[in-house]
Amino acid sequence: MFVSWSHFSCSLKKALSSSFLPALVIFVCPAASHATDSSTVYQVNENFRQNANVQDLSLFEEAKKDREFFWSKQAHNLDWFQPWDTVLEWDPPYAKWFLGGKLNASYNCLDRHLNESASKIALLWEGERGEERSISYDQLFNEVCKFSNVLKNLGVKKGDKVAIYLPMIPEAVVAMLSCSRIGAVHTVVFAGFSSDSLKDRIIDAGAKFLITADGSFRKGKIVSLKEMADLALASPTPVEKVVVVKHTEVPVPMNEERDFWYDTLMADAKEECPPESMDAEDELFILYTSGTTGKPKGIVHSTGGYLLGATMSLRWVFDIKPADIYWCTADVGWITGHSYVVYGPLSNGATVLLYEGAPDHPERDRFWRLIEKYGVTILYTAPTAIRTFMKWGEQWVKDHDLSSLRLLGSVGEPINPEAWEWYYTHIGRKNCPVVDTWWQTETGSIMIAPIPALHPLKPGSATKPLPGVDVAIVDEKGDSQTSGFLAITTPWPSMLRGVHNDPVRYQSTYWKKWDKGYYFTGDGASIDNDGYVWLSGRIDDVINVSGHRLGTMELESALVDHKAVAEAAVIAISHEIKGQAIVAFVSVKEDVFNHPGLEDELKQHVVKKIGAIARPERIIFICELPKTRSGKIMRRLLRDVAEGRVIGDTTTLSDPSVIEEIKLKYQED
Ligand code: WTA
């Protein structure tokens, strides 16, 4: 794309623009409701209903009667070394669950299954090139015990932070469970994040150890993770030791004092490692997620409450049973991977499929081949994947035997009814309920989703909150409405316990919107006459690209970090496949001459700063961003331009004429 606005016209424009006037506050309202209660309703078949884990409303009734008693009863589904003496201490906005209780997450995911299910397969792994591994519960237990000893020998102590930067290989699960076994706090960084993102997270978490791999496979190519890790550690970080898993076998430089091969360390490791007795409130992990400021937040999760939420929601919503072959396609780098690839399924003693590669490698039917080959019964994936499959067409699906499937799940963004219907018809063959699950990194586990045998399904609605979860749709004042902001009104066990090292941000992001002790989700929603919740997406400055959260500020910071950029404003536009796509409006510095390659250079710069998921779809070069007289960027107007809507009120703009020029520029590009 050629940049046609000259440096001269921008300078002239600036010289002519008007001066600053007093501030005006702009309120952003939640998106208007699209909810209806007249949509088609789907029921599960009789066979499903009769065998379902939850067949009646008693869980809801118990929770309604006495929420704390309900959760304490549910907590008996975990194995505790010592029972709790207080169920909940709620000192808003800080909650403590199961005080005095002692347990260990890896014990719950491994040891407790060894009596009855030692030889049961815990992990079925397939690499992109077709390599296979199958690991039983006792093998996984042995591997975790040995790696726990490796970590201890390297000097990892209870409470230490350990960064994990690994592809979707069994060692990622081993690394997470080994940390939890010895009481270390893991922080998994998605392997698609750049070295800068890895470095920022390592520094913020104060991680002294890093577990990575020589590389990973993606679409037939090798991604050198070790190279990224080396770059991240090239400037000072707290990391003292690095463990490297050999996966691609491509030679990588090793720093003799700092880097150790996983295999070599494991060869000498002792097999016995008793689990550390952890307090229910001890930190289990930190996971970074984007917010409305430039810096991602380290969301802190606890051991007891988190594990309880992940364990029970899987039983209720996914109806998990011992014979299931369960596949959640999320990467362990996201919360869905934490709760529904690792902790939830393993705590339930399930057989979990892990696949390292891309859905279209070598062909676009890879997922369906995997389901057929392994007899997958439960599939949990994202709307963006479903829309991609829709685009590729049914021909990739129809010749595969998918009759093993009995339940389908969706997560990450609102699922449009069309995608829901396609998923239901072409993947589920009209035989499997589709559970649309709403939750967040912060909530730790699913909050709103159907209990399949109880809730008739309406495509596009996540239906109702789970037992023991209280939500409300409220307005700016916190009063109930049929359409507005989604709030969670009471504390729940798997809720975040804070933002790492930032109590002020914890308060201001989640608990300041209303003075009622309500948790602010950042999502807009409406509720229909049947009490079904319809999510409409983020109402803050968070963009959801293919189910991945990115902050507009974070993207803007990455853009202005480039030497040519003076200012940047980022918005989301609707995208057929990704749900949302990133569009950046950029003004360049006065002494910089635009050149045809600048757009690509800026896109690449964002990828370098954050990762490939953050690559802007379009960059529009403009002279001046639309600002209020107090200097606040009016992204609302940019959204109007991008969506081709009638431009909203421009009277507060310091220079209303900029919007006409931006419109022209947007259409021209
Ligand atoms: C969005 C992912 C509508 C929402 C588990 C939320 C959804 C954000 C759904 C959290 C859904 C997730 N329907 N929107 N079923 N699931 N979202 O932290 O905007 O990566 O706030 O957690 O994704 O994203 P996160």
UniProtKB/TrEMBL annotation:
**Where is the Acetyl-coenzyme A synthetase N-terminal domain positioned along the sequence?**
59-109
Residues with the N6-acetyllysine modification: K632
Read off the InterPro entries from this record.
Ac_CoA_lig, ACAS_N, AMP-bd_C, AMP-bd_C_sf, AMP-binding_CS, AMP-dep_synth/lig_dom, ANL_N_sf
Where Mg(2+) binds, per the record, is at V560, H562, V565
Domain (AMP-dependent synthetase/ligase): residue spans on this chain:
111-481
A GO molecular-function annotation: acetate-CoA ligase activity
Q: Where does CoA bind?
A: R218, K219, G220, K221, T336, S546
Which amino acid positions bind ATP, per UniProt?
G412, E413, P414, D436, T437, W438, W439, Q440, T441, D523, R538, R549
List cofactor names only.
Mg(2+)
* The enzyme's E.C. designation: 6.2.1.1
Q: Which GO terms describe its cellular component?
A: cytosol
**Which stretches make up the AMP-binding enzyme C-terminal domain?**
554-632
**Which NCBIfam families has this protein been placed in?**
Ac_CoA_lig_AcsA, PRK00174.1
Task: Please state which protein family the record places this protein in.
Answer: Belongs to the ATP-dependent AMP-binding enzyme family.
Q: What is this protein called?
A: Acetyl-coenzyme A synthetase
Q: Which organism is it from?
A: Estrella lausannensis
